Amino acid sequence: MLDGQRQRCLASVMSLILSNRPFRLLFSATAAANLGDGLAALAFPWVATLLTRDPVLIALVAFATRLPWFLFAVPVGVLVDRGDRRRLMIRADVFRFLLVLMVVALVAPGGDTVTGDLRVMALAAFAFLLGTAEVVRDNAAQTLLPALVPRDRLEVANGQLWSVEQVAGSFVGPPLAGLLIAWAVPAPFAAEALCFALAAWCVWCIAAPVRIAAVPRGLLTEAREGWAWLRARPVLLRLALMLGLMNAMSMMVLTVLVLFSQEVLGMSAAGHGILLTFGAAGGVAGGLFGPRVIARIGAQRTLHLALVLMVVPFLAIGLTASPAIVAAALFAEMVAALLWNIVTVSYRQRIIPDALLGRVNAIYRFFGWGLMPFGALAAGWIVAAAEPGIGREAALRLPFLLSAGGAAAMAVYGTLRLRL
Question: Which CATH number goes with the domain that contains 334?
Fold first, then answer.
């Protein structure tokens, strides 16, 4: 029976990819872009740890990566609703391609004329610019999908996109980055640049319906329309706020994990990359089988299940020094995250009018992603503040334990108040 379910799931996956060329190109672009993101996810913080052991400076790089979601999500949403979403994606990926070429120059042997903390600050600046382009690309991509896929296939399409994001961004990207760093520090950044170039080309090949550019009526006026629509739907607003808190906790964990991996687990760059692949495997499993879980138990129960599952990984990592347990915890965390994402993203894409999709989606992600940079910065501050009193290892465990407590509170709140 289980083999039959797997075969039916795989057939559903392949039918959409093979029969829908625009979606196939978007799928390929997503794979390439997220492979680049996965290379950067390990390369940026790892290079920062080669330059400094200060947790606040290392957290600054993660903070800079996510800060654009707080600063620019809303104006980017207005921009996405005004213009051609496909062209915005192309321009964002070309911009990222050029930026990463400059990062290669910074970390190349000749770039060591800038040393120490200044190089960390330069990495943070590039991370900020790359994050800004990511805001544009990701918002445009989520709003483009409903124009390429029938609405009754959105869960399947989103599950496939989330799965390939995990495969490329976490399963392949980080361990590949670790191997490339061991060979030459600039190598993962050069590979990242090629990924963004390939993603831009795939999107350029998509034959998407051309949207007529909306007449600008003022940034604040258009943003208020999106906010009014979202505020009138408290379920969506509640989901956005819950996502923001969950992402802040996840960012605390991810920021400290690079130091935890080195100092507590004793892992190399390649070993840390392999560790992250277990999280990716959980993402793939959640992306492929999530739609079937949703169909079986319903969207609301799936969200409750995801909230409960989220508690266990943070607590397990905070209490162990075993790489195997950490790997299993990362797997479980990403299964929970994918279940949540498939339900909520498909829900938004289905109910938000196309003319408002960019703005409402951006405001939603302002709340949902805007707290991530502050979670990253908080992780560095927590470790730095706690270390003198409780020691380095206990301080590195503290963000995981605090996140577990926060996730437990979110699970209780969701069970009591979350109703689709």
Answer: 1.20.1250.20
